[in-house]
Write a structure and sequence with these properties.
By secondary structure, the chain is of the alpha+beta class. It has one domain. It is built from two helices and two strands. A two-stranded antiparallel ribbon has the order 1-2. The longest helix is centred in the middle third of the chain and has 12 residues.
């Protein structure tokens, strides 16, 4: 987390898009459920006043016998 904190601090006055594969689930980014990792990520995003710009899309980025995620 320290590296992410450093990037966020560095980018405060700049325009920055970060792409994260967090293996977390949240309805905020159009999943069907929110798990513990998703709640942690939601709290992290909110506490740093970050924005999520994930679009709702019927194409899946992950699919297995355990489920599928957009």
């Amino acid at each position: 987390m320290q590296t992410i904190e450093q990037i966020i601090e560095f980018a405060k006055s700049k325009k920055l898009i970060m792409v994260v594969d967090s293996n977390s689930r949240s309805t905020i980014w159009h999943d069907t459920t929110t798990n513990n990792r998703g709640k942690t990520m939601e709290d992290f995003v909110a506490s740093r006043q970050l924005s999520i710009i994930n679009e709702d899309n019927p194409r899946r980025t992950f699919q297995s016998t355990r489920g599928k995620v957009t």
